Amino acid sequence: MLNNRKVRLMTRLAMYEQTEGKEDVRLSKYFQTDYVRVNVLKTVVSITFGYLLILLLLVVYHSEYLIREAVTLDYRGMILRYVGLYVIILTVYCALAMIGYMIKYRKSRKKLAKYFRMLRRLRSMYREEDGELTDLEEENVSYDSDNT
Fold first, then answer.
1. 99: in domain
2. Which positions ≥6 away from 108 have C-beta within 8 Å?
3. Measured between alpha carbons, how far is residue 23 from residues 30, 81, 99, 114, 141 in Å?
C-alpha cells in the first residue's frame, strides 16, 4: 500500500535535488571563508577588467582632445583621480560581494540542513515499515511452525 506522506516527502526531496540542490551541494564542498574569498577574487578580476575596458573606451573617445592637449595635461592629477575612483569602486563592490556571498552561503546551508532533516524523516519512515514487515515475518514464522 502506498504511503502518501512518504510519496510527498520523496517528491519534495526529488524537486529540491533537481533545482536548488545541485548548487547547494556544490557550495557545501567549501568552507564559508573559502567560498567567499574565491568569489570576491572573481569580483576583483571582473571589476578590474571592466574598469580598464571603460578607461580604454574613454581614451579612444577623447583621443582627439588628449592628442591636442598632450603637453599641457596634468597627468599626475588624472592618474590619481582615476586610481582613486577605481579604489572606491573596488572597495564598494568587494564589500557588497562579500556580504552577498556570505548570505548566499548561509541560506544554502540552511536549505541543506532542511534537506537532510527530510532525508532522516524518510529513513525513519522506511525503518518503521521495515520494522512492521519484520514483525509480520516473525508472526508468520511462528504460525508456520505451529502448523507442522
1. yes
2. 23, 24, 27, 28
3. 12, 41, 19, 15, 49
Cell numbers for 122, please give them: 524518510
Cβ(94)–Cβ(40) below 8 Å: yes
User: Could you tell me the residue range of the domain that residue 93 belongs to?
Assistant: 31-111
* Number of domain units in the chain: 1
Q: Grid coordinates representing 127?
A: 525503518
Please tell me the predicted confidence (pLDDT) of residue 143.
42
- pTM given for the model: 0.70
Whether 139 is covered by a domain: the verdict is no
| Euclidean distance between CA atoms 134 and 23, whole angstroms | 39
- b/e 1-24 (16+ beta carbons within 10 angstroms → b): eeeeeeeebeeebeebeeeebeeb
Instruction: Count helices and strands (H / E) in the chain.
Output: 5, 0
Residue ranges in the chain whose pLDDT is less than 70: 1-2, 132-148
